[in-house]
Design brief:
Length: about 300
């Protein structure tokens, strides 16, 4: 049952969460549901047809099937008390993104929150994170920029006019940020995450006069389905793996986003990049296990 958001402070709000089949997107969608929101859960994986671009990562993780789907996430949103609406959308395709926001506008008449989370970087992951830039495959650029940063910009281009017209709204960009330190040994990843943070900042400058906020949120090391599989464990048994002691659940990030969406003064945070650990202290929420997990730093 819902824990942190019993007051349903987001009841009546309409959110779009991209890349919400699993991982961070799912954690965010579920917590928005717990806060009472109507959540459009988008991505490419449905129960009947999972996305087909994760073969390399599935093999590395020794998984036979891709975990999660937009349908399962939407069901969990509803179970937590919100309204979950699954819409299959390939966020690299402009026409599909345009149709998504046309559907939301037609059905709800507004968009209060967009969470940009769709990320293609996992599609080219080779199992090696730390290496000189000349040894990383150039395909990482395509997956992280053309199917990562571009996804965020594309969704924002369709959400922004709706928010500007209603003179309210929030765009959240999920990123990773470690106090402007270099993200150790992966130049492509560092560039992509820096670009996302800068995207949130730049959009904030243009949206602020219209009463619309844009900001980036940085989680720590999350126990996503692929992280758990890589450590040969699951959410019920991860504590037996000392290497995962510094991890947090995706719902910790979700609670951060829900808190921001419910903050009437969120415009004051517009343009910034905010770590989940810092937001937990500021808003007083915890992870699902009751901890306030410290920020993950390199």
């Amino acid at each position: 049952m819902p824990s942190e958001s019993r007051e349903r402070q987001l009841k009546g709000r309409v959110a779009v969460v991209t890349g919400a089949s699993r991982g961070a997107g799912r954690g965010i969608a579920v917590e928005l549901g717990a806060a009472g929101a109507t959540v459009y859960v988008t991505g490419r994986s449905t129960r009947r047809q999972p996305a087909n671009t994760y073969g390399q990562l599935l093999a590395l993780s020794e998984l036979e099937a891709l975990p999660g789907s937009i349908d399962e996430t939407a069901d969990e949103v509803a179970r937590m008390g919100g309204r979950g609406i699954a819409v299959r959308c390939d966020h690299t395709q402009e026409d599909e993104v345009k149709q998504l926001f046309a559907q939301v506008q037609r059905e709800q008449g507004r968009v209060d929150l967009l969470v940009n989370n769709a990320w293609g970087g996992h599609e080219t992951f080779t199992g090696v994170f730390e290496a000189p830039f000349w040894e990383h495959p150039l395909s990482n650029w395509d997956s992280m920029f053309d199917r990562g940063v571009r996804n965020h910009l594309l969704a924002s281009r369709f959400a922004a006019p709706v928010m500007v017209a209603q003179k309210s709204g929030l765009i959240v960009t999920t990123t990773f940020w470690d106090r402007d330190n270099y993200l150790r040994g992966n130049l492509f990843y560092d560039l992509a995450k820096s670009a996302m943070t800068r995207l949130a900042f730049g959009m904030a400058q243009e949206l602020r006069p219209h009463g619309v906020a844009s900001l980036a949120v940085s989680p720590g090391w999350m126990r996503t389905e692929f992280v758990l599989a890589g450590h040969k464990t699951d959410e019920a048994h991860w504590r037996a793996r000392p290497a995962l002691a510094r991890t947090e659940s995706p719902r910790y990030l979700g609670r951060a986003v829900a808190a921001l969406a419910g903050d009437a003064q969120v415009l004051e945070k517009s343009g910034g990049v905010h770590r989940v650990a810092d937001l937990a202290r500021a808003y007083g929420f915890t992870d699902v296990d009751g901890r306030q997990v410290e920020a993950f730093e390199m």
